[in-house]
Structures are given as structure tokens and as C-alpha cells.
Hints:
The chain is mainly α. It is built from 4 helices and no strands.
Amino acid sequence: MNTYLLLKTLHILSSVLLVGTGLGSAFYMFFANRSGSVAAQAVVSRLVVRADWWFTTPCIFIQPATGIAMAQMAGWPLGTPWLALSLGLYVLAGICWLPVVWLQIRMAALAQLTVQADAQARALPQLYHWYQRRWEALGYPAFIAMAGTYYLMVNKSALWG
């Protein structure tokens, strides 16, 4: 297998893992937050943070490294419109993701403290819900940016020529 195909394989697998973990985490966190179960929110928020560290974070670095290397090997300048827009959308998703990670960590800590303080807790502090709304508000543009990046990667220059 040549280097380009190895990079392409890593790029595709890491993109699936990156977006799949993000979408799966968002799905479970969204519904746990609406379940009314503080215990469920504590468990799910803790696991979402763990998934981000274990899966999302490594992929965030693998994606641009493999993508830029493949672009250079294929002779695509980084200023090529589809590639520049893809990189811009990727950066936008990252700008949304960084505060999301902080919010998830805070949400997990608040939920865990609430459960530890009262095993039968029926409600989380209002701060948790404030974090939750920001977490969701940042998640939508991040997901749309990643979907746009996928679209551009598949269609490449067909959009401009």
C-alpha cells in the first residue's frame, strides 16, 4: 500500500470516528438532559467527556495532518477554493468544540456533585441548564460545519469547475 492510500485510510477512519463520536455523544447527552434523571445525566455527561478525550481529541489532530499531507501529495494548493473552505469549516467546528468540551466537563462535575450530595436528587442547579443551552447552541453550527466539510471533501473541485 502506498503512502497516499495509507493516509487516505487514516483520514477516512478518523473522520468517521470524529463525527460519529460527536453525533453519538450529542444524541445521548441531549436525551439524558431531557430524561429528568440526574443520575443518568451524571453518567452520560461523564462518559461524553471521556469519549471526547479518547476518540475526538486524537482525531482532531489526525484529520488536518493527513488531509494536508494528501493535498500536498496530490498537488492541491491549500488555497484551492474547496480545500480552503474545508479548512475554514474545520476551524469553525473547532472554535465551537473547544467551549463545548469545557461545558461538558463543567456539566459532568455539577451532575456528579449533585448525585454525591443527594442520591435521590431530582434537579440539577440552574447553572447546569445554562451550560446545557450553550452546549447545544455550539453543537449545531459545529455539526453543520463538519457536514459541510464532508460535502466538500467528496465533491472537491466539481463545485468550481
